[in-house]
Design goal:
The protein is α/β, with parallel strands linked by helices. The protein is built from 14 helices and 17 strands. The relative contact order is 0.08.
Length: about 475
């Protein structure tokens, strides 16, 4: 699971500016007046030693009602769901009573807290942070988010307070095959979870939004260990309004990152929606093996079934690698077949592929359809080896590989998938161009050419 780091503090202390720096985006609006951020905004952190989710929150104030109270409620919700907290204060305002109240509540939350004293540019860092030792949150960290000063060391300190990647990996090994159940609200995720487990472990109700959090459900079937991650339904962003529901989106995205196989549930009676395509895109971008289960299949007419299959091909062409099964979670039909598919997908995503086999497939692919010419020179693909698993990464070395057209890349991906019998998993191609040994030699002559030139020069008459 990606760790969650929440940014909290009074209004206008620079939380949105820091959010944009950490995510490398401009997703959070920034202006020099308080209260601009009225909602939580989340993104993937790109600055630091490892990936994480960062949450920007509205400013915390002492207002007991109105929009400020709603903003505070969402901010404290983000604190409850976070793994670590960055508490921002303003060096130019100094220590305030509101800062003291926030720090008291953060200590009671029992989460790792990093105290960040922002807007210290042009100030003596020691003097700017001196007053904030009184908050009792440890060593204050001086920074200027607007000028990107001190941000890297700040996020490293926050990440160091979280479990190490090795500890997380050890937990992952013990959990068996991890499966994330993903889908829009009310498509039958919790019903399918109960059907798989054979008992009422998850609340299932005929109303969207029943599941609010990601629920980890370990079980064993036919001697194989699994962990089923039942997630909240992910709605279109414009329809996500409730404070709790907004954080459910983060939990669902986290589940995809934590899983080895994503099980996307679709509603056959409603057809394939744009949001279904968005979720499939999230799973493909995460690089996880993908199994699509079209639920509520029983009772559909032949015409309706044909329409759903056409929509799958038309709206999810980028997920052509995915396995597709048609089920009824309520009645259990087709559910038993999912496990064989899950195991095939997992085996393909985590398979070790011999280098000799990769080179054999590459040679056959190039012989059948040579790469195109670029400026009169043919792109040469020389050899391949595996660069990673889950998803399989195939590294191909050659000349001018950066000029390889996208259609030829897709041809190679499909060729490797068919030849290696990889099912249900995307393939990542990494193309690397080798160094040209004559790159820096210009028009330098060979020794033989030099000797011939010297003989000619001896016969040239001097003026």
């Amino acid at each position: 699971m990606l760790s969650v780091i929440s940014l909290v503090g009074r209004p206008n202390v620079g939380k949105s500016t820091l959010f944009n720096v950490l995510t490398g985006t401009r997703d959070a609006l920034v202006a020099d007046f308080p209260g601009l951020t009225r909602d939580r905004k989340y993104g993937e952190g790109r600055l630091g030693s490892r990936p994480y989710l960062v949450v920007d929150t509205g400013g915390l104030s002492d207002e007991g009602e109105g929009i400020e109270a709603l903003m505070a409620r969402q901010a404290w919700q983000a604190v409850e769901e976070a793994d670590a907290i960055i508490f921002l204060v303003d060096a130019r305002d100094g220590l305030t009573g509101a800062d003291q109240d926030i720090s008291d509540r953060l200590r009671r939350a029992g989460k790792p807290v990093v105290l960040a004293v922002n807007k210290t540019d042009g100030l003596n860092p020691d003097l700017a942070t001196a007053d904030f030792f009184g908050l009792g949150l440890g060593q204050p960290h001086a920074l200027s988010a607007a000028h990107r000063q001190g941000v890297r060391s700040l996020i490293d300190e926050a990440l160091n307070s979280l479990p190490s990647p090795d500890e997380i990996a050890a937990e992952d090994v013990d959990s068996g095959i991890r499966i994330a159940l993903i889908g829009r609200p009310n498509v039958g995720k919790s019903t399918l979870a109960n059907c798989i487990l054979g008992e009422e472990r998850v609340l299932a109700f005929d109303q969207p939004g029943t599941t609010r959090d990601s629920i980890f459900l370990p079980f064993t079937r036919d001697g194989t260990r699994y962990t089923l991650i039942d997630t909240a339904g992910v709605r279109r962003r414009s329809r996500v309004k409730g404070a709790v529901e907004k954080f459910s989106v983060i939990k669902a995205l986290q589940a995809m990152q934590a899983a080895q196989v994503t099980l996307l549930i679709l509603d056959a009676q409603e057809g394939i929606t744009d949001q279904d395509a968005t979720l499939a895109g999230y799973a493909a971008e995460a690089g996880r093996a993908l199994l699509i289960a079209v639920n509520k299949w029983d009772g559909l007419s032949e015409h309706a079934r044909a329409r759903v299959k056409q929509e799958l091909e038309r709206k999810l062409p980028f997920a052509g690698f995915a396995e597709v099964r048609y089920i009824s979670a309520l009645h259990g039909s087709g559910v038993g077949e999912l496990f064989a598919c899950l195991q095939r997908c997992h085996a393909s995503a985590t398979r070790n592929i011999p280098t000799a086999e990769l080179n054999r497939v590459l040679e056959q692919a190039v012989h059948a359809h040579p790469p195109p010419l670029v400026r009169g020179r043919r792109i040469k693909l020389r050899y391949a080896h595996q660069g990673g698993r889950n998803p399989p990464v195939i590294v191909i070395h050659g000349n001018q590989t950066e000029r390889l057209p996208d259609p030829y890349r897709r041809y190679l991906e499909n060729t490797f998938r068919r030849a290696l019998a990889l099912v249900g998993t995307p393939i990542r191609l990494e193309l690397k161009t080798g160094e040209n040994p004559f790159k820096d030699k210009g028009n330098r002559l060979t020794p033989r050419q030099q000797r011939h030139r010297n003989r000619l020069l001896r016969h040239v008459k001097r003026p």
